[in-house]
Structures are given as C-alpha cells and as structure tokens.
Amino acid sequence: MKNTTLLRLTGAGLLLLASGLVYADPCKLALESNDQMQFSVRELVVPNECGEVEVTLRHSGKMSARAMGHDWVLAKDSDVSAIVNAGLAAGPAHGYLPERDKRIIAATPIVGGGESATVKFATSQLQAGSRYVFFCTSPGHATVMRGRFLVGVTHVAQAGNSN
Ligand SMILES: [Cu+2]
Q: Looking at the chain, which terminus has fewer C-beta neighbours within 10 angstroms, N or C?
C-alpha cells in the first residue's frame, strides 16, 4: 500500500514538472513584424537539445499582406540572395517564395496586420559550422528584415561576445 501511494505522488510531481517545461519550451520561438518593415529581433537562438524548432511570426501592424506582408524564411547566409531573387520571380501568387526550393530550411506563409503564422522544422537540417539567417522575402524587405539564427549558443557566450 505504501509503495502505491509513493508511486502516485511521484507521478503527479513528474506531471507538474512536465507541464512547467512545456510552458517555457526553449524550442518554441516567437517574433513580431510590423508596418515599419521590421522584425522585433535581430537574433534567434535555440538550444542544442531541440530536435524540432517551432517559430511563430506575428504581424503586429495594421497594413494588409499585399501592402506590407511579411514571412519568416530560414536559410544559409550564402543562399539568401538567390532565394530572394527566386521569390521575386515566383511573385505574389506564390507568396514570394520559390516552390520546393531545397535551399529553404523553413518558411512561414506571408502574414498581414493582425495575422500570425507558425512553422516547424527539424534541426537535423542544420549543419555545424554554417551560418544561418532568417529573412523576409517580400520585395525589398530582406535588406533590412533579416537576422541571425544560432543553435546552441549559451547566454554566457553571447554576453562575452560583442558582435
Ligand atoms: Cu517583410
């Protein structure tokens, strides 16, 4: 009888612990975009432990997707220009994203004011030693709407690094 009670208590404790972890899941990232053609962050960092990452982009502005739409696209730094150009060629009917482009690691659809979109992707697609960038493929946006995407960088390392 005593053993059964103990097991039940342990189970409840683990359940509480698990829900706490879900609440502050470091593998789920969120950022905002606005009517001033900006992302709310210049850098996103995910821990090494994340097998899968979820990114949610919210548009906190009021302008329509046609006038000031934004998406969140992740790729190697060296592939950004080519993807942006291919996106321009694809045009608004395809959300300024080339279809089935293997250089794109993850991409949300374009959102307008008040909307949000989420994308999930496996970190196994990311190679150690490569530089990754997130950006927006709306025409002319990628020059300002871009930031660094880092895996496994601790806060201590960030504080000690000025760039
Ligand atoms: Cu944009």
A: C
